[in-house]
Amino acid sequence: MQQYSSLPEQNSQLDATQTVLTTIEQLRAELWLERSLSQLQNRLNECLVCLVNNQQTVATEADIFKTVVNELSSALNNSTVAIALVEPQQTVSKICFISSSPSRRSSSPLLKAIAKKGKKPRLRLQEEIDIQDLQFLEKQEPPQAWLLADHAGGVIGWLIVARTTIESSCELFKDICTQITSQFLARAAQQCAATITQLRRIQSLQQHCQNLENFNQELERTNQLKNQFLANTSHEIRTPLSSIIGFTHLLLAQGYDPSRERHQEYLNIIQSSGKHLLALINDILDLSKIEANQLEMHWEKVDLQTLCRNVLILVKEKAANKGLKLVLEIDCNVTTLIADSLRLKQMLLNLLFNALKFTNTGTIGLQVKSHNSWIHFTVWDTGTGISKEHQTELFQPYFQIANAVVSRYEGTGLGLAVTRKLAELHGGWVEVESELNCGSRFTIILPLRQAQEGEVGRTRDEELMVGRTSGGETSPSPHPPITPSPNILLVEDDLPNAQMMQTYLQKLGYQVNLVKNAAQMWKSLNKQKPAVILLDIQLPDENGLALVKKLREHKRYQTIPIIVQTAMAMKGDRETCLAAGVNDYIAKPIDLPVLGTLVSKYCKACI
Q: 27: phi > 0 → left, psi -120 to 50 → alpha, else beta; which?
């Protein structure tokens, strides 16, 4: 009879024990895999969070690569880990990142694998490796290199790991470790590539947001410049218009027959104001045409001696009114130049009028000299000078410098922008040298000869002369005089408008005391309390609305009616003035009958 033993066979028990141990090692290896991958992903996420939160330590691709090589080196017991980056269209990859503690315990399978192909590469920083060799390592079993590709399939680089040989008497355990390690590195390479892709997307989005923010800031700045330009242009247009319409009204008034001299004086004011308007409009049109590349140039042989003298004649009267000396210095070797004479005159006038605007005492000069094949036209002055900060913005359209010397923002802020662009059309440029309180030097540098000498095509023929002449007594009014004669305090720094309103109101029977600034206004108020104050907003020494506030805070002047007469005529300006405490508002150009009605209204209320 066959007998069976109930005791297990010795070999069967050993096999079961080995299976259990293998399963345990498998689980331990898998846990290590997930834990290491999780730790790597957490570190990579920290890098991205720094970038998203705009922290001081901003993540870059280098930070990602450094994190990967250090984490992998630590997880693999200080095996040598490297990342080689690839330049587009290159056949060679360069090692840019490598772990700081490479293993010295045994020779690298990486080196052995490539050495089989007859090469002796070194795994160190800045070492170049052929992409073919990396592809060869990628196909090894187990792999020694892993491709890093972005979301579009583009090659970022390669992850290279020179692992030490796993020492174990159990071949099955060695197989498990090799398999798990290969999985770990393959997934780590995917994490690295995915993080780089996310980083690039975030950076692209941030750059887009930054561009959008910059665009919005530039749009806001452009909008502010546009509003400033419209306000300045409105002010500058309304001021000469006020003289034109007002003096025309006086000349057409029934029963008024001024003397020939006075008649001529009024016409001169109207003509000067009209030329002022023409210059403003031309500046605006010129800049638009230049930017649209539609400005035609008329090239001709220019007599520089004659042109420069004619230019100074146009500014002579305004310089004399300010007590300024004019100086002309022309190099005897400089005689003629091929240029557009009208545009050259326009450039010089722009610079000279700017010099006049910012110079109260001293001298203004025009110097013309030749330097090799160039001619330098330098307009210099002894005025207030320009800060380094403002010099960088001078030639931007609509930019204007606020200055105590200037009673208000004169012009549109386009003169220097037009001058620079006209100089560029001549093949030259404009330079500026200036220091605060030490004057300024603007130099137009033009080539001595022009290739377009035969080209013809002038766009306009008017001279660019900006300036105003003084007015005088004006006409009687159809309104009957008021008895007794109330005293009116007129605060106005523009002489033609001031004389026009003073003359008109005097013909109505008012006593008009004319002052030009805030300081004179306070002196006048200390002597006599007026029935009405006619106040301009933009005065040379103080803002008119600030004056209104001070008057309303003073017990003696709280009840005096204040009528602002101003070129501030943009939307909301009337409401701004009324909110400041004025009684009424009239915009330039002044409608004289309306002015008379307002003055009469508030004078009667005071009786």
A: alpha
